[in-house]
Write a structure and sequence with these properties.
Layout lengths: L8 E3 L5 E3 L13 H13 L2 H23 L7 H29 L3 H7 L3 H38 L9 H25 L2 H21 L4 H7 L1 H4 L1 H5 L4 H28 L4
Antiparallel strand pairs: 1-2
Helix pairs in contact: 1-3, 1-5, 2-3, 3-5, 3-6, 5-6, 5-11, 6-7, 6-11, 7-8
Protein name: ABC transporter permease
Organism: Phycicoccus avicenniae
Keywords: Membrane, Transmembrane, Transmembrane helix
Length: 272
């Protein structure tokens, strides 16, 4: 004996019978932005590639600090220890940002993401803010590891303590990690393909730096559009008004513009 229950239906023009509306209140709010942010933060490290990249960064940083501790009895200023921790993070962390953006398109999970949150701009902003949070955490970790290594050199190796460091150097170290991670996210949004984004991130700025050094016709433009060159005065400890303008121009060209275009494309490109 079987029993069937007909779902409630409503009549429509033309004699078509449609299912009755589901009873109860309808949700009036979309996915909270804080939840999107948590999801994007988890995407950066909740993959095999992301985890191994973080492990690789840790190994490189540990190796760099170990070399500084061993050579010359670790007698080096805190600034050098800070450079040893920030440089590997600035070079490798952007790949994590690229993967967080391109993995959805290369693994074809973008359809699920934009079905759960159709407002793609909110997803793009969540990825960008997640990159900033990761960069801030990386900077704090770099400062802490550098301080521990310098303190260990003083206490265990008898090195001379030299904690003096300029404010512009601190700003440069933090900006180095933050800007390059944002640039990785920007290239990921712009190209939406992991190999293309990784190659473009490493090759294009390097090629432009080499071109600006070798070709005299583009040397003046390189002074304004080479991000590596415009950030150098921060690490020196002094920066003039013109150098601030050059830094702002290079950041606009290599970070802000690709990020803006990438967000625009992410909001409009067809999801397959």
């Amino acid at each position: 004996m079987t029993t069937t229950t007909d779902a409630p239906t409503t009549a429509a023009p033309g004699g078509v019978r449609l299912p009755a509306p589901i009873e109860g209140e309808r949700p009036t709010r979309g996915v909270p932005f804080t939840r999107l942010l948590r999801v994007e933060l988890r995407k950066m490290f909740d993959t095999r590639a992301g985890r191994w990249l973080v492990i690789g960064i840790g190994v490189v940083v540990a190796g760099a600090l170990g070399i500084l501790l061993v050579r010359d009895g670790g007698d080096r200023p805190f600034e050098e220890y800070l450079q040893a921790t920030t440089m590997p993070m600035a070079v490798l962390l952007p790949v994590v940002g690229i993967l967080a953006v391109t993995s959805e398109w290369s693994q074809r999970t973008a359809l699920a993401t934009f079905t759960l949150e159709p407002r793609r701009a909110r997803v793009a902003w969540a990825k960008t803010l997640a990159a900033l949070v990761v960069a801030a955490g990386a900077v704090l970790c770099a400062f802490g590891l550098a301080a521990l290594a310098h303190a260990a050199a003083i206490g265990l190796r008898g090195a001379t303590g030299d904690w003096e460091i300029g404010s512009t150097v601190l700003l440069g170290a933090a900006g180095y990690v933050l800007l390059f991670l944002l640039q990785g996210v920007a290239f990921g949004m712009l190209l939406r393909n992991t190999p293309a984004a990784v190659v473009a991130f490493f090759v294009l700025p390097t090629a432009w730096s080499i071109l600006g050094t070798l070709v005299s016709q583009v040397r003046t433009a390189s002074e304004w559009l080479d991000l590596n060159r415009t950030m150098e005065p921060l690490f020196v400890g002094s920066i003039s008004g013109e150098q601030w303008a050059q830094l702002g121009t290079s950041v606009a060209a290599w970070v802000v513009l690709p990020l803006a275009v990438g967000m625009w494309l992410t909001s409009r490109v067809e999801v397959k």
